[in-house]
Fold these 2 entries.
Entry 1:
Amino acid sequence: MRDGRDVLSSVVSSQIALHAPHGGVVPELAARAHLEAISTVVDAALRGLGGGWDDVDAVAVTRGPGLVGCLLVGVLYAQAAAQARALPLVGVSHLAGHVYSAWLADEALEPPFVALLVSGGHTESVLLREHGNAERLASTRDDAAGEAFDKVARLLGLGYPGGPAIQRAAAGGDASRFRLPRTHVPGGFSFSGLKTAVRYTIRDLGASALDGEGVPRDPEVVSALAASFQRSAVSQLVDGLEEAVERTDAGAVAVVGGVAANEALRAAVRQRFSGLSVVVPPLDLCTDNAAMIGAAGWQRLRLRGPDAPGFDADPSLAEFA
Ligand code: KG4
Ligand code: ZN
């Protein structure tokens, strides 16, 4: 990154192919794969700079939240690199990274803005009041939105990761064929009831409609359920964002995190908040990436200075800026 907002080089190594056969992330495999990939990924990113490490002024690394084995790989690697080169180092919250992906995506966006943060592990609305100062306005009582997409995809035999698979199956599906609940939790979100409703709807189709894995045999049924689930999930998310925005005087909203890659959600947010400035980052800034960590880290370094060497990874870190 240069000056917080200018991405000079961005490299992402995906583990989707590694985890797909298991239907979800296997923590031990994930940590090992991080260890195997990290040098290659950092070297590839540095190739985008003329002078490699000599051009680097500071290092930012994800400190949490997440799987501890994966976080440790990054934190220890970054600490070693920073120490070897006598560079300042900042430990950044993954969630702050997602919030800052919006700031990165739109040059005109400055706080205060409200971000709907929807990923595999998190569903929250967050107010970034000013740089370095954020407040969580609402969060999920149970499953995260992305988790719900992943679980429902499994029920429908659509594979991992579930979000893109549901989106594909939902295209052309009849969203009104099956009635699923439109959950509304004032001041929060909830997805487990919706997921359970999908499960019961499938069960009620009867054994003859299901294959050996309990998945509906009829692809039109799968599409209809995917469409209905997606509609219900999106409507809850957009309502929740609206409720959050009403509690603030922010003139801008953003949708960030892996689930922000969802076309139906992107369209619904643009439509509902047409009176505000709406930022929906491009897909490669929605799903996990290091550019957003660089942006959040740049602000953090500017405002608070470097972190003391030897800080720990924090699997349950809940910081939004
Ligand atoms: O932010 P992210 O890349 O990783 C976490 O920090 O969790 O988000 C991953 C989540 C997964 O649950 C995935 O199914 C979901 O984002 N996702 C989507 C779409 N693309 C990814 N959900 C809905 N529609 C999509 N197109
Ligand atoms: Zn994420």
Entry 2:
Amino acid sequence: MGAIMDRVRRCVEDIRKKTDFAPRAALVLGSGLGGFADKVRAAAQVDYSEIGGFPVSTVPGHKGRFVFGYVGDTPVAVMQGRVHYYEGYPMEDVVLPIRVLGALGAKELFLTNAAGGISPKLASGSLMLLTDHITTFVPSPLIGPNEDSLGPRFPDMTEVYSLRLRELAKRAAAKRGIPLEEGVYVQCTGPNYETPAEIRMLQALGAGAVGMSTACEAMAARHMGLEVCGVSCVTNLAAGLSDKKLDHQEVQEIADRVSGDFQGLLWELLAGLA
Ligand code: HPA
């Protein structure tokens, strides 16, 4: 067993001391979505601090725990809080939780985030379903010795965001009457927001929205064969696309405002898996 699997197994052992819950799907909650975890019919909770070697977020307002329970009849592992590359954690730590979710038995992974809108189709408050991503500006989490028991050295990334889950997401949005745009997510390192010149570059590259998480998690998940779905909450127009300066507090306010629709969409989507 390689060093990565060793860490994953130790985390799973610590979680298994508290619960034998078997999730079918996993959900990572981004900004403003924390309340979703409270609606899950919880079977168990495990704080990240109870798991040896597990990364703990340094961002104010980000809780750090797993909630295991049911969305409708679907058994789900929910991550309330994630760590970001900009916090200083190596990529291996940033994606460790994703690998743990896979090792716990999740087959489908739902990733959510707050993002800056680049596409003219997106307004502050829009939801965007991820069709693909650009990770060229952050290091790959797969750099280093390959963990062959997880996946191949050179994994295919042709369909990171599952067409099947995208169709289910669109159907769930339509059923609830929630507008859902589609586009390519680009991950930048943060923690600074981008410059207007960087946003013009990202626009020319075909990016619809920009954020500081998710794509690296999706890559680690695809490496180990999980089916991935991603949704961004556009909390602001990206730098230079409006006359406003970017501000974390405003990002949080918009994320909170949209959270009703966002939670409704996720609920419909996850409950519909069972
Ligand atoms: N850029 C990067 N990440 C973000 C943004 C942004 O404009 N808004 C929310 N997360």
